[in-house]
User: Fold these one by one.
Assistant:
Number 1:
Amino acid sequence: MSHFARQESIETIARRPVPPPYPAQAAGDIAYAEDVFTRETMREYLPKEICRKILATIDNGEPLDASVAGDVAHAMRQWAMDRGATHYTHWFLPLTGSTAEKHDAFLELKDGKPIQSFSGKNLIVGEPDASSFPSGGLRSTFEARGYTAWDPTSPAFVKRNGNGATLCIPTAFCAYTGEALDKKTPLLRSMQALTNATRRLMRCFGAKGDGRVAVSLGAEQEYFLVDKSFYLQRPDLLQAGRTLFGAASAKHQQLEDHYFGSIKPRVLDFMTEVERELWRLGIPAKTRHNEVAPAQFELAPIHEELNLACDHNMLVMEVLRTVADRHGLVCLLHEKPFAGVNGSGKHNNWSLAYDGRNLLDPGSDPRQNAIFLTVLCSVIAAVDRRADLLRASVASAGNDHRLGANEAPPAILSVYLGAQLAEILSQLEQGREGRSADGQATALKIGVDVLPALPKDTTDRNRTSPFAFTGNKFEFRAPGASFSCAGPNTVLNTVVAEAFDEVAEELEKAPAGRFNPTLQGVLRKLVKAHKRVLFNGDGYTGEWAEEAARRGLPNAPTTPEALEALVRPENVALFERYGVMNAREMESRHEIGIEDYRRKVAIEGNCALDMATSMIVPAVRREYRKALETLDLARRAESEPGAAALDAECALLGEGLADLQSYAVALTDALDRGDTAGILEAMGNLRCVADHLEPFVEDDRWPLPKYREMLFVY
Ligand code: ADP
Ligand code: MG
């Protein structure tokens, strides 16, 4: 195929007419959660007794009566078919970090006649031939079968496409040995661990029986949009999800005029359609705005129960991608699609409630304050003690370019509390009278005194901290935009459970009548031991990295270093103790993480090499040739200034070509050796030369869409 023909096909694809959104409706007609098999739907479609049983399973984790499954399946199929569904799928979260689905029609043949069927067994278990999913050695391919098991706590939903629909059943994915091959299973186990530990802690504070523990997550999703016709001209975006070349545009984000700016009509149309789709799926999309970088945006939902919120965030990413495509746009979820401007993260807003009360809300009476301070200190202790695990939970090839890149939290974990809370903790530590930031004198006696009011907004929003207390929740800002929320929250739940248990252990030993002083002592000890992780300053600075090193805080700047945490004996012991993952499961996550990292870097390396050799070098070479020819003409015309200028230009282009060639050789070598660090280094050098040469090549001969186009023309 000639270049021209290829170009033509790409343009045809880019210009494919945009189908109308499904279905074209007025806003008022959107029934929230219309495509979700909700409680209300169950009541409508199921007999009362069956409904009661299934709700008991959902709410209290009671084992599901096998006989009930058939009735539930029947009702689900009826409901889904009313929405146009012809197929069903077990929807799961394999260790690739994305979602997986394999569709089966409701179709059966009985004596050659078609009938619709979907049995209880079809609902409860699936046996996908899942041999190609990463298992990190948990399951060798000859015994490839994994199975999917229905997670009734995340409701089934119908996913629509232009001319049909599919019933999706959220499931966990395990090997026959029961070992988890997915991200959901450890998450559910970690929620159980945190539930147990929270109940134990609350019993120390006089709670009777087992209250309801709820972990909440609000995941803010950042993303970029680029026009599809640019995207299709960029092999790097197509293959690696990020640009591997591209000189900075004169204007990028210096003026900070994009952040919260008025949203362009085309983008607003896109966002509106995304929200309609999400609302139909019962996903409470709430906030939308322009982000800091040009062409960067954010979507934030109302927080929900953790397991559901994790599933919902996976759907958010999918809906963003598919709706963008319908609008002739491409949604980039890579952590760093463009060098020199901000990357995209996923702020993980996490909180914990007991019997409906948020334990991270200071509350207004002394007993509530005591619980709040205990939970606060426990989380601080957890982050300090297991910083390496939290760091590992956000490690990936993409996020390596974002963490610590002066626009995102560094790879060093620290906790931001704001001036007022920091002061309260230091009073707690020293057991002395002090002044809170609002000037009130305080003599903090836990469980007796009321904390000064902590209005959410006095805590100056510190955007540079990876782990910030923001009023009534913790915001973990290190996860990358493309991440599943399951991994980071599995770690967070487990490490907090450990800290709660440690506190409860001490409190349970408190002599009668000595609870408050015991608590005071326990918290003082916690603050003393873990205050090194508290940092209210600017996390982007080099001074902080030095200070953090002096404090002995771990700093793992790259993914392979960070992932080591998953196989450290003390971390494996922790996960085993809490039944979240066993040693083999941990080892498999480590292996998959490393493998994924190596593969992604190799793909980028090969892509960069290909682009350099087949696109950039030829463009520079043509320019060089033109310059040489013109130089020749100038000499013949005896134009000295002309010859001098062209001579300099030839030298620049000639040296550029030589540099491109030598870095391409270095990159080839590193790729051959499978030397990941070498690939990254050679790729960086190659890019540096190419970006330098870009403005010296005649604009219409440059083979790639430029930053000033991709980031500003949409
Ligand atoms: P920001 O200024 O960071 O955007 P917001 O208060 O708007 O802060 O909240 C951002 C996210 O935090 C939203 O997704 C929101 O639903 C979530 N959130 C708010 N309160 C809680 C909570 N108690 N637990 C978990 N997430 C919460
Ligand atoms: Mg936020």
Number 2:
Amino acid sequence: MKKAILSLIACAALTGCTAVKVSDFDSIQEYTLKNKNGMVVKITNYGAIITSIVVPDREGNMADVALGYDSVDSYINAIDRPYFGAVVGRYGNRIAKGKFTLDGVEYELATNNGENHLHGGNIGFDKVVWTAEVVENGVKLSYLAKDGEEGYPGNLKLSVTYTLTDDNEIVMHYEATTDKATVVNVTNHTYFNLAGEGSGSINGHLLQINASKTTPVDAGLIPTGELADVTGTPFDFRQPTEIGKGVDADNQQIKYGPGYDHNWVLDRKGDGMEVAAVLYEPTSGRVLEVITEEPSIQFYGGNFLDGRLVGKSGKAYGYRSGLCLETQHSPDSINHEGEEGWPSVILRPGEKYDTTTIYKFSVK
Ligand code: GLA
């Protein structure tokens, strides 16, 4: 990995960028990573949130392509919390009815998304303060999720190491161990708009997803257990496809979204790092490649953004003005153990959870 220049800009509590009200948040800081190309990434240890990603367009003009806020205080006190830039978990995505059984014990989690559990519950990893350690080319954030926290079993020692390379890659390396059998499925929930955050709909972006199958859902976005071929459907992104082409198609799965908010099971060649998705924005020429070890990816097209939230540029985030590409194990995996398309999410003592995803930026 080539060197990137790391400049640690810690915001003191008095400067306002971490003017947070809750006393135990007084250790919040924001870290700025900068590489030789001028790409800038900002990260805070509150929620392990990526607060800013500034990359060039084909003319060299820089723009922030990550939706979010310009102060940590705003992330904490926003009127809505759609997980901008955050690491979500202990279980990223949904668990049906908030229930699962592990080694004969039934666990009940918060049902914080209708009748289901989403993104680790009421106080998921996006809403806690992580311990930060500056490392070469980046920052390592660590969190101990206690046994019983949000209803999950096991003391989970989790870290995510963010590094920025001179190839314009944000490398996200997740590691975890546990002292008791538990479930873990964490991911980053950055909302992207490659034309620049606040610049309107993402439906003009072209998306490619290297997957022939999705896991269709019910009205609550819980997988039915089926694996469906994408051929001939609005979910076939095996070739670069404009998102707006199928986002309002007359299709039951699209109606459930509404729009795109689904899980694709990747056509993987092996277990290593493979390209899951490629996002391209034609007016700027910006490209984002999502490269991962994970078996699946959630494409969420910003269907729940409604203009109420005003982002860092002072512009409202309207309907479908940002999209997420969340590498993951399939939703509700713990209730589909052993089924094709649902590799296990169980972590046991002595095992190590270890997975990497890269967001790689370029232009064409
Ligand atoms: C995930 C879910 C979406 C939505 C967002 C957060 O992407 O799949 O349904 O809940 O998180 O708003």
